[in-house]
Amino acid sequence: MVKKHAVITTIEDRKLVFIFENKEIAEIDVIADDNKVKLDGIYTARVSNIVKNINAAFLSVNDETLYYDLGEKNPVFLNNKNDNVPHQGDLMLVQVSREAIKQKNASATSKLNIFGENLVLTLNVPGVGASKKLTKDDKDRLKAYFSSFDTTLDNGMSFGIVIRTSAVDVDKEDLLKEARVLKSKLNSIMEAAIFAPSNKMLYDPKNEYNSILGKVGADEGSYVITDDKEVYDELNALCEVRVSDADIRFHDDENIRLSALYDLKKYLGLALSKNVWLKNGGYLVIEHTEALNVIDVNTGKSIEGKKAKEKHVFETNMLAAKEVARQLRLRNMSGIIVVDFIDMNGKDYNDKLMSELKNQLKSDPIHANVVDITALGLVEITRKKVKKPLYEIFK
Prior knowledge:
Structural class: alpha+beta
CATH topology of the largest domain: Aminopeptidase
CATH architecture of the largest domain: 3-Layer(aba) Sandwich
Strand content: 25-35%
């Protein structure tokens, strides 16, 4: 069993979350400013501009500009319309699907999602789906629970249900109860949207705190600790709503800061460092450019002495594959990632390396995919863009 804990504190005027798995740092995240548009928040947004040559609309919310793909089906309008196409001045109901990254605007979608602990409701995306991490038998069993569930809202719109991995051991009645609660919440949002002005947030998933509780869980040995009383109270309030037994702790020792107790500045520094050392003396060099991220694997101080060079290089690459997957999650790197592993002779070695890399990426909560190996032996990876990478926040 993986024991997890999260530490929440403020460093350099930023409220940070450090998530550990079996005492090893796994993620570092920044809790969003309440005044900024929030990821997964649902807003009423005004169409400020239409750019037909890129098939996009730009929406205005709280002085921020959101990108909206005109190719989306079933946009949700809040004003009278003669067609189903966004025009300048229209008022729409949208959800923030991606934060602003580099020079790109935040993105919005009409495919609204309402998040529960074990389920996600998806507006205008009918059907019952399930996490890819569930087995086929579990998917079939869990989907059957909702075979007769009414997926029509009070306004006649339909929704779908996505079953999360955490639902695997949850009783049928508890899942149906959660679905009814989420449906009621979605009905309330749609009803409130009719009379809401522009720039109104109608759904705040409090994704940071809910996400933290979801990632850490309530297993024995897992806990969340903070030195921020407001965060502590918020987490406890969420536990009551979720009927969760999560272990929430408050650090009030004036003799030692929470950041010092867990050596958090060291972990933050390592996550922002250009070089990452491997256990055998090899190392990674991580570089970021406007177009992509580059990771170079080197043998460094590793010793070849007792082993054949080819086998030694293979072992270094295998260690690097595990570390690359870990660093993508830790640094929240996204978009295109190119990895230059150490050259190896033999298809068998390369096949094993690719298999190991793909296997390591499966544990990433954000979808990451090994695309191909180029003619020059470079491995191409893509990782979904959701939040700003760590290096961009601290640059």
